[in-house]
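Researcher: Here's a chain I'd like modeled. Treat it as a single chain, no partners, no ligands.
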Amino acid sequence: MIINKPPMGWNSWNTFGDQINEKVICDMADKIVELGLKDAGYEYVVIDDCWSLRQRDENDRIVADPELFPNGMRAVADYIHSKGLKFGMYSCAGTLTCAGFPASFEREFIDAETFAEFGVDYLKYDFCMFPDNKDAQLYYHRMGMALKATGRDIVFSACNWGNRESEKWIRSTGAHLYRSTGDIGERFNSVRAISTSQFDKLQYAAPGCFNDIDMLICGMDGVGNVGHPGLCGDTEYKTHFALWCMMGSPLMIGSDLRRVRPETIELLKNPHLLRINQDEECRNPIVIESPRSTASYTMFKHLSNNQVALGFFNLNDDDGSGELCPHDIGLTINCGFGFKFTDVFTGETLDFYNDYIKVPLKAHDCKVYIGEYVTRD
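Model: Modeled as a single isolated chain. Structure tokens:
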């Protein structure tokens, strides 16, 4: 199974935590379709931790909690599939999950078989309670084999938070994406810390295995498991989403889609940002740190069809600016060509040849452009 683009979908953890049930999951599937998110490319509906009973059954199988999922997981999978979507679930490489439920340590093959029987298309595989004296690479590899042995196509989402330099070996385990950071919270300092922590690791992601910098907080509006009232608004959501798109991260929505504002849905469906994230070449951006301003970054990214993406990000808590010099991206004075850039939010255009660009940016704000090569007259 080959995953050529970063997966897109929805995950229960950021908003619901342990407050999940069959109705919530089916409601989210309905909303993905109703809000046009499916048509925009969001296709996975993923149940995170806390879905099972605390004990395995007499056959050593993990069992879905019948109070939360009275019709069983196969019925949930069938409902999600009936919407034209794909079904995802959660387990953990350790002895228990992060919330203390049965995990898959030394039971990888029986659990993979169980997930396949449920109709699972995606497995998020966490790292809590993993023994310090065991080889993480081996155990992730074992689950990669177990999933393949089922004969079902299941996306393997390895989530060990970047421990043990996993970016250097995770592709070898059969993983299709890998969580390289700790958990995100609905705070801009969390967005800033997570994104900048990966600037020196971008080179490890490529088609087939993508660097997952955690789920999206766009539209949480202070509600939910990792919500923080008043700490993020539309500007922070805009920059957060644009960073994830420029950095080629999987896009897993974490908000309650029954209450998300239209402005957030418009952002999540922005066709230009999604074009950048889902570009068929899946190239990583060049990251240029401003020499004159801390936490101000410029990103330049090659796209297919001779296009490029350019982003200016002010991650400071104060107003600032973004800047670009021609030599930062390899342009010489006499090269004879440049770019015509179009703002992905406003549609405004600007020409860039061998001139210095400086754009004003409010605190936590960004500007992102898609550009085409043009010859200078």
